[in-house]
Description:
By secondary structure, this protein is α/β, with parallel strands linked by helices. It has two domains: 10-285, 3-Layer(aba) Sandwich (Aspartate Aminotransferase, domain 2), CATH 3.40.640; 289-422, Aspartate Aminotransferase, domain 1 (Alpha-Beta Complex), CATH 3.90.1150. Helix content is 37%, strand content 13%. It contains 17 helices and twelve strands. The protein has helices spanning 7-13, 40-47, 62-75, 86-95, 112-119, 121-124, 138-144, 167-177, 189-192, 249-253, 257-270, 276-286, 289-307, 327-333, 349-359, 389-394, 411-422; strands spanning 79-83, 103-107, 128-132, 149-155, 181-184, 202-206, 220-224, 313-317, 341-346, 364-365, 375-377, 401-405. Helix 1 packs antiparallel against helix 3 (62-75), helix 7 (138-144) crosses helix 8 and helix 15 (349-359) packs across helix 17 (411-422). The longest helix has 19 residues, at 289-307. The radius of gyration is 22 Å and the shape is globular. The N and C termini lie far apart (59 Å). 49% of the residues are buried. Residues 85-87, 111, 113, 155, 159, 184, 186-187, 206, 208, 218, 220, 369 line the site of pyridoxal-5'-phosphate. Pyridoxal-5'-phosphate (PLP) is lined by residues 85-87, 111, 113, 155, 159, 184, 186-187, 206, 208, 218, 220, 369. GO terms for molecular function: cysteine synthase activity; homocysteine desulfhydrase activity; methionine gamma-lyase activity; O-acetylhomoserine aminocarboxypropyltransferase activity; pyridoxal phosphate binding. It holds the Pfam family Cys_Met_Meta_PP. Keywords: Pyridoxal phosphate, Transferase.
Amino acid sequence: MSAGWGFETRQVHAGAVIDSEAGARVTPIYQSAGYVFESFDDGALRFAGQSAQRAYSRNDNPTNVVAARRIADLEGGVDGVLVASGQAAIAAALQALARAGDHVLTTDRLYEGTREMVRGSLARAGLEFEALPIDADEERWVAAVRPTTRAIYAESIANPLGEVADLALLGRVAARTGVPLVVDNTVATPYLCRPLEHGAAVVIHSTSKWLGGHGSVIGGAIVWGDGFAWSPERFPHLHEPRPHGAPSFAARFGGSAYGAHLRAVTVLEHGPTFPPTSAFLLLHGIETLSLRMERHVANAHAVLAALEPHPAVARVHYPGAVGDARADVAQRMLPRGAGSIVSIELHGGRDAARAFLDRLRLVSQMTHIGDVRSLAIHTGSTIHGKLEEHERLALGITPGLVRISVGIERADDIVADLQQALGGLEP
Ligand SMILES: Cc1ncc(COP(=O)(O)O)c(C=O)c1O
């Protein structure tokens, strides 16, 4: 439907279906648990996945399908599925690839919720995770791949310090080893970075962030391309015949076998359903993604320019900022801009962070990122609060670190609020 259209057009139209009854132009909220079978035999066909008609909203709701297809289209993928949160997206994406005894490689720069999951419930389920330095070279990644490795997992822009993964390098590793690259593209969004173009097989989003954009929905998405060869050695579950002699996912869906299995088995069995009311709000957010991202990036640059020289600020973390050893990677991966998370380290440590945050008036002190509103948080006492001090420091979470998610308000107003809150904190 959208072949040839630009991103700005597709963010408004891709995946939309005009409802045949009422002709509604805006995708309606299909708030229905299930869908009436036309007959006894029709029900059996729907359950066997042999009908274009749907059966049940747990994994197949018309409003959700439009939003999933729109995100997939913007990412350059073939299809996608929505789940209840970004966390659910990560869990489902990995559970559809790996089982007890399997191994997953990650970069050492990941959102703390993801790190908690891989150290916690996924480790208890028998999955082994191994983190390589984000700047490890291609040969080191290839050498780390084992016969049991089922995925290479990275964030395009890592939360909270903004380290940028070299997706082109990881895409080459994936092609050389037959291990799929799975990328959490939440912070970049498809407007700034499209991992599938660099060789990723699967892209994950917390749609709670910039895609939704208004801080009003929690959700997640998993989208996939169809170019990856899912080998029977690493992914036997995609090659096993289905019940009643039906062909395997690989035989039936080829390069999309992973996605078909994810939707029809993993999401159906675990049931992390995305509410269609949230999909309606998500679609409204996506319609303005490019406009918001341009403004988010411009405002982040204004904050960077104001805070880098500020005497109370020891360092600003933003891809390409002063001191970023991987600025060249950011330039290659994110030519349109590097998102809108700006993290600052205050000379005065934790006490300075407390004073700064408690004085903010416009910027809200809360957990969340990617909102139209500017938000700030001391991650060391919240998101990273369960870690020991040495673990925080190993991740670059110093006592005076504050993460700012720069919103789309007038840049001068954001900068003025940050500056008044920094007043008097100079060493
Ligand atoms: C990069 C990244 N991925 C995933 C998540 C989890 O998303 P959610 O809060 O929607 O579960 C977050 C949350 O902050 C995140 O920053």
